[in-house]
């Protein structure tokens, strides 16, 4: 056997030992999130579809039930709330396994193999007819049986919620997270954990860290619940909920809800996120959604690809500070986004774009299957696209080629803001010299800065 295959066999064995050396028969909940959609054909003018996603690790714990109790209330008490059981449930299996290992994942008990991690996603949907408008309708779900080997919070319940403000208009929707939370990451490797919130109303979104909750709004306090022998003074906080290298501290991008960090301690950690939805015209808070997710930091040796910053824009503008792409209706925009492999053995990266919701958007890819892949995005937004959009670009490395069980991947989540056009008002006549003045009735988006110029070359 040559040195390559000896190393390959060693890496697979080391990976499995590091993955399961901790107590495995913990409880079962791994993540949960919720979102709300307006139902225009509902039984009342205030009908809303609530979708709850709950993720259970297959390696152990008790099964989830077939129903889930949904509660709703107005925080200000302007109208009465209620509760109902959600059902039926839709169940599917998710994993980050290479194709060779999918058929023997821990979600396949008939194989007798439990070494390869996977998740079962339970999705419940329920239409709720609210009694009327309120500025603070909160929908919520809670469940006991968090994992009992979490390092940064204690054991207990898991709670997620979503809020809508339908006091001004009934047709409101909350943001929702568009990337499933299956976070297995490698120790001492730079990580970009994506949430990628999208909003059907194209409203402005801002994401933030939040404390996980266990019973209604009651938060957990981050703390060192499982003392790390190498550093017993290690602490966790809202702004630093996971141990990260000081040279690459934990940060959250408020535009894309992407958490970046370089974990220095192996184990299970809980992160929680909240994304707020603001009306893009009035700037009024219209709702929020939340996500609670358990991150597993493993002692693996296969770091994910390293993404490039979007560059080479044509027809638009890239704010390099917020990494936001700005575009105008009717003008084609294009830009590059790429990634480089950091694999130890075989360096190959594969890019996959997700352009859902962007009508007419296209892309090209160069270098797919090489150590450096670059994709170019093209889109001409229309007038109906004014607002905030999210594009997701997935980069997968060649760990499957190396024979390892997990796909090492990273996402590049890019925020695109389509700015509204400036309406200069109706046409008019102005005669010089001595003519009557003409006042333009310009209509612009609140908060925008603009300038004007004459096509005849007069000062701006």
How would you characterize the overall build of this protein?
This protein is mostly beta strands and 460 residues long. Helices cover 5% and strands 38% of the residues. It contains 2 helices and 29 strands. It has helices spanning 3-20, 99-102; strands spanning 29-38, 47-57, 68-74, 82-86, 89-94, 119-129, 137-143, 158-164, 176-177, 184-186, 191-193, 197-198, 204-209, 213-215, 218-219, 251-252, 259-261, 267-278, 285-298, 306-307, 311-314, 317-319, 324-327, 333-340, 349-354, 362-366, 372-379, 387-397, 409-418. The strands form 6 sheets. Strands 1, 2, 3, 4, 5, 6, 7, 8, 10, 13, 18 and 19 form a 12-stranded mixed sheet that branches. It is globular, with a radius of gyration of 25 Å. Residues 1-26 have low confidence and may be disordered.
Q: What structural category arises from helix and sheet content?
A: mainly beta
Q: Quick one: overall form?
A: globular
Terminal CA distance: 75 Å
> What kind of assembly state do the chains in view correspond to?
single chain
The percent range for helix content is: under 10%
Largest sheet: 12 strands, mixed
Question: Number of helical runs?
Answer: 2
**Beta-strand segment tally:** 29
């Amino acid at each position: 056997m040559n040195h390559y295959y000896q190393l390959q066999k060693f890496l697979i064995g080391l990976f499995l030992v590091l993955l399961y050396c901790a107590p495995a028969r913990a409880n079962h909940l791994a993540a949960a999130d919720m979102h709300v959609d307006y139902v225009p054909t509902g039984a009342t003018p205030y009908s809303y579809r609530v979708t709850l996603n709950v993720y259970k690790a297959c390696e152990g714990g008790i099964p989830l039930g077939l129903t889930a109790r949904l509660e709703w209330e107005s925080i200000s008490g302007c109208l009465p709330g209620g509760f109902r059981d959600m059902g039926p449930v839709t169940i599917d299996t998710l994993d980050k396994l290479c194709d060779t290992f999918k058929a023997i994942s821990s979600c396949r008990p008939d194989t007798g193999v439990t070494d390869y991690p996977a998740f079962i996603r339970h999705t419940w949907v329920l239409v709720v007819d609210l009694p009327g408008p309120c500025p603070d309708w909160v929908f919520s779900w809670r469940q006991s049986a968090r994992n009992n080997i979490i390092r940064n919070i204690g054991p207990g319940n898991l709670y997620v919620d979503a809020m809508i403000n339908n006091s001004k208009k009934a047709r409101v929707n909350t943001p929702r997270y568009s990337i499933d939370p299956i976070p297995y990451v490698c120790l001492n490797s730079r990580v970009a954990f994506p949430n990628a919130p999208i909003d059907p109303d194209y409203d402005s979104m801002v994401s933030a860290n939040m404390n996980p909750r266990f019973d209604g709004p009651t938060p957990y306090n981050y703390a060192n619940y499982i003392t790390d022998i190498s550093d017993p003074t290690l602490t966790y906080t809202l702004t630093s909920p996971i141990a990260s290298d000081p040279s690459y501290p934990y940060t959250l991008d408020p535009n894309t809800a992407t958490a970046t960090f370089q974990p220095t301690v192996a184990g299970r950690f809980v992160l929680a996120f909240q994304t707020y939805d603001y009306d893009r015209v009035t700037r009024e808070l219209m709702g929020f959604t939340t996500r609670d997710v358990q991150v597993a930091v493993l002692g693996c040796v296969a770091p994910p690809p390293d993404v490039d910053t979007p560059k080479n824009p044509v027809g638009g503008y890239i704010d390099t500070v917020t990494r936001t792409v700005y575009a105008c209706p009717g003008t084609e925009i294009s830009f590059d986004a790429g990634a480089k492999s950091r694999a130890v053995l075989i360096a190959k990266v594969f890019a996959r774009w997700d352009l859902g919701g962007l009508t007419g958007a296209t892309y090209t890819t160069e270098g797919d299957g090489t150590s450096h892949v670059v994709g170019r995005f093209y889109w001409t937004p229309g007038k109906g696209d004014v607002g905030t959009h999210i594009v997701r670009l997935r980069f997968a490395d060649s760990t499957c080629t190396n024979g390892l069980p997990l796909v090492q991947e990273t996402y590049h989540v890019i925020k695109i803001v389509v700015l509204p056009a400036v309406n200069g008002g109706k046409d008019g006549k102005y005669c010089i010299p001595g003519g009557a003045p003409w006042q333009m009735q310009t209509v612009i988006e609140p908060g925008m800065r603009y300038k004007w110029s004459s096509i005849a070359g007069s000062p701006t």
